[in-house]
Amino acid sequence: MLDVRAVTKNFGRHTAVQDLSFTVRPGAVTGFLGPNGAGKSTTMRIAVGLTRPDSGRILINGLPYDRLAAPLHEAGVLLDARAVHPRRSAYQHLAVLATTHGIPLRRVDEVLGLVGLSGVAGRRPGGFSLGMSQRLGIAAALLGDPGVVILDEPVNGLDPEGIRWVRTLLRSLAAEGRTVFLSSHLMSEMEMTADRLIVIGRGRLVADVTMAELTAGH
Ligand code: ADP
Ligand code: ADP
């Protein structure tokens, strides 16, 4: 469960997120839709303690991220698939993260298999396609077997086959009772992946609807 409570974040005089409140529940794939600059990344960064809000807070299973006993186990996050160490292999990238957080290395092999990157584990992700980078980012997010999965634009740049692959993965995570929250600026991607939509524009909540409600209204 991810609980966004009255969050406001300003960058100088610019308001990125304004009095934003919503809840993301387990067992479904929830999409976070809004145009570029709407405040999606800022909200996700606040959720995992990388950005401090001016007011309000975001709780993961009832606690702020920095108070979680086992952060990677409770919340896995993909924020920027290209943000990887240039000289580490895909395996090393995950192994460093695992070791830092006390996760056994066999889990690295597991998540590499889960995202279909076992065959390229020894390669440096600098040479990966965007789709492969997204898979590696998703693997990192799933490393701790988290109950809450937060993915910023995970299908950005993927072809339809890649998007279908992500959809299948996200649906299985949700079916296991996890909270799955992914952002996109494209409604077409949301239609392919999400059960429910949180829509924001200019940092404010625009809609909080199920995909079924949305299509019934048209
Ligand atoms: P989205 O993820 O929906 O594209 P962001 O959360 O990245 O939106 O950005 C929301 C707004 O906040 C944008 O206008 C963006 O330019 C601004 N912003 C985001 N991060 C910073 C920052 N570190 N410094 C200044 N402005 C920022
Ligand atoms: P750096 O690589 O910049 O040293 P870390 O990898 O240590 O940063 O991560 C910084 C913070 O982000 C830590 O608090 C860590 O728990 C969190 N973090 C990093 N990757 C993930 C992830 N995949 N899932 C959840 N939290 C993560």
Automatic annotation (TrEMBL):
One of its GO terms (molecular function) is ATP binding. InterPro entries: AAA+_ATPase, ABC_transporter-like_ATP-bd, ABC_transporter-like_CS, P-loop_NTPase. SMART domains: AAA. Keywords: ATP-binding, Nucleotide-binding, Transport. Gene3D superfamilies: P-loop containing nucleotide triphosphate hydrolases. Residues 2-218 form the ABC transporter domain. It comes from the Bacteria. The keyword ATP-binding applies. Belongs to the ABC transporter superfamily. This is ABC transporter ATP-binding protein. It comes from Paractinoplanes aksuensis. The lineage of its organism: Bacteria, Bacillati, Actinomycetota, Actinomycetes, Micromonosporales.
